[in-house]
Write a structure and sequence with these properties.
Layout (H helix, E strand, L loop, with lengths): L6 H10 L3 H10 L3 H11 L28 H4 L17 H14 L2 H11 L12 H7 L11
Helix pairs in contact: 1-2, 2-7, 3-6, 5-6
């Protein structure tokens, strides 16, 4: 059985491909809810996070790939607690930030950095050739029709 690539690995491999068509095909072939959540959270300006900007103090997991306690495949379901206007608004800020740090500490350090970049809307330019327009073409229903710039 082939191992499932971590989300940062999917985006890194996509950025190495030469053409837009190859990137789109790759992203579609690796489509998953966590990948789409990261992309949507990072590029959709309608989504705001109620976590302070920047990287919080956390202990990076330096385990080799495949040996981290968790992955974004298991953790992205908790993202709903960090979106402004959502269920997480009812949680005390310190508790919400603690939950966020727990996610960062449980996933591979490169995926943790990806989550921080998503939260801070800094995915643009992080992976060569991975733009909002490209992912909108790869996943046409990901962004509202009026927001595909």
């Amino acid at each position: 059985m082939a191992k499932r690539l971590l989300i940062h690995e999917v985006l890194t491999e996509a950025s190495k491909l030469k053409t837009k068509a190859e990137r789109i095909k790759w992203l579609r072939s690796k489509s998953s809810l966590p990948l789409r959540d990261i992309i949507k959270g990072g590029f959709d300006e309608n989504i705001k996070f109620n976590i302070p900007a920047g990287a919080p103090p956390y202990k990076k997991d330096d385990a080799p790939i495949g040996h981290q306690p968790s992955t974004l495949y298991a953790q992205t379901r908790k993202f709903k607690y960090f979106v402004k206007g959502g269920i997480g608004d009812r949680i005390e800020p310190a508790r919400r930030e603690s939950m966020f740090i727990n996610i960062l500490e449980s996933v591979h350090e490169d995926d943790a950095e990806l989550v921080i970049a998503m939260k801070d809307k800094k995915l643009k330019g992080k992976y060569k050739g991975i733009t909002k327009a490209l992912v909108a073409e790869a996943f046409p229903t990901l962004f509202p029709e009026t927001d595909q710039t």
